[in-house]
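Students often ask why we bother encoding 3D structure as a string. The short answer is that it lets us treat folding as translation between two languages. Here is a chain of 706 residues written in the first language.
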Amino acid sequence: MATVGKFVDALYAAFEESGIQGEQCQFDDASGQLVIAADTTRVVPVASLFTRYDACSDDAARAALVAAVAEVFVNGAADVPSSHADCGARLLPQLWPVVKIAARQATLPAGHQLPHCGLHGEEPPLSADSQDLGVVLVCEYMHDSSCSSAALPPIETPVLSSDLARWGISFVDALRGAMEQLRARTKAGPPAEKRWEHHPSGCGQSCWQDRFDAVRAALLPKLVATRKRTDGLPEAGGHVVAFATTGCVLATTSKNALGLCFLGDTLHLQIAPDDEKKKAEEKKKKDAEAAEKKKKEEEAKKEGEEKKEEEEKKEEEPKDEPMEEKDEDEKSEPEAEEEETEPPVVELTDEEKKIQFPKHSMPDLAHNVMMGTYARFTTPEMAEGFDDIQYEWQKGDKATQYLKQWVLNKKMSTPLDSIRPGQYFKDKVTQFTKLSKEWQDKLTAHQKAGKKKAAKKAEGEEADDVDIFSVADINDTGGGAPLFEHFTYEDWELMKLRFEFCLLVLSFKKDANDPDREGIPMDHLGFYWGKYYNTKLLSKRYGMDSDKDLVNLIKDTVTTKDSVLVSQLDDELDDLAVFVKLTEEQRRERQRRIDAGDETARLKIEKPVEPKPAAPAPKADAKPAETKATPAVVKATTTAAAKGSKGGGKDAKGGAKDAKGDAGKSKGKDEGKWGGSWGGSGGKWGSGGKSGSKDGGKGWGKKGKW
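And here it is in the second language, the structure alphabet:
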């Protein structure tokens, strides 16, 4: 008879044969999970695997299943990949009950979290009182039918906070990619007319049957809204959806009384009785085991009574005098036994002596509670009103110092998942974006005007003779030449990179508001970069092999101290022109090295791929302004509108000739650059309109949408 206990014992034995010691495994009966705390922490879903184990026909099939579990979880075949790109189609969203999410959180090791959100994007922690379901990310493991793990069902390994930190992306970005994979998987599944199987009552059941039906119906509601009955009758009323399991969804409408009755009957008469049947079978097994145990106890008791009766009969038999000597010998025997059974001397090993806090299978605090409170842990003080404080282990100051160091190590090793960009960060980004555009416009105007700095004072004098950090106005260092006169694409990118790194560190300090967090641990740089800039930090784009090399490229702005990224600049960052000055200083040094023959000083920054220009429209003869515009005129009026002019050039209605000659001469307020508005201000698609009318058009719709 298969039981969960026997299944767990078989797994322990198989793991030990694969090199995993028993003390490295902890089984939690409440959540039905077995945690393997080896080089990599892995969680075995015992509860779900036991269903397949219990269904095995014989002992050979059960042994094959246990061997397959050991092969997959010991060798890490079901692990979450080390990079986000390696996940591919395996990364998918999944619906979990809130109580299951809380149970999984409680079993995770310290420093790990289970990222999740509500059905409408609510941030954790989720309350079971307000909603029953949450969205998590899982990495699906599909076995190869040719290998020994073919006996296993598909395994869904949840994505933890440590996985997101290793990938360098946020939960939102990972969820966005998982949704794309779910859409692709949905399209590759049954066609639209075969996605639902309808009962004559009009109640439909999902037909994907790949364990992701529920999350489809919840996150892609259009699949429910476009459901069509096979009889062609219209669906009246609002949609009613029931998530029976992760792979079974029932759907009907609020005005379909027959469909609602069928849905209720299905949930109570088919699904619920199955659960009751399982409970009855489990109760039957427990009763049988209890009866067998009671029977054995009665047999043992009966045997004990028989032995006792035999001993009593022997004692009643007459005893001869020589037996007195035997009695004396028997009396002396216990004394000898007492001497032999002295308790052995127990000695601890050196490793056991170092252990002060043994690990337990169940933590004292739930993981989410620990992560939200550990930063405020302190030792008690008499000022708090205690009558007496006694330390059983380390005394007084040593205990306080130990706790402070533990909290500090915890902060350095655990990403702050709750941090959000503050107003200081947003204001500085807006200010820098505006200044950066002004500086680049200034350089463009200077280059078009053909202005150059004054000639050298003497032969052999360097052209870059301006003291960079004494310049008061970087837009004019003399003769109208800006300090960034020789900036190229690479220099602008390095200036932006300096600003982004410096602002990230300073904003993190302000938003964390913790004196112990003076900088960002290098191991968490990718995680916080995704939190603040909502993108991935790509060091190779700048020609660097690692984040450490990238930081070394701008070490005049940020540096590392004890593997923590800190800023070299003032915390308030009042003068953003300092990034221009630092970039110019590095540019001059780099140019001197290149002039001296050092080719390694050249930058290798990748440029973004520019879109190919559209093919020019065919020219046509001009027509009167009242007639429909030809392609050439359409192109001219569109260009004029893009430049934000009120009239679209000198005469936007003058036909092809005027369009060709005057479309680019408009003196509109936005100068017609990419990033300016289409017919108005704002610089956003849809906010400027599509015509060259007096007011700049009304946009593409009321709110500027497509």
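Translate back mentally: Residues 449 and 578 are 26 Å apart (CA to CA). Keep this in mind for the problem set.
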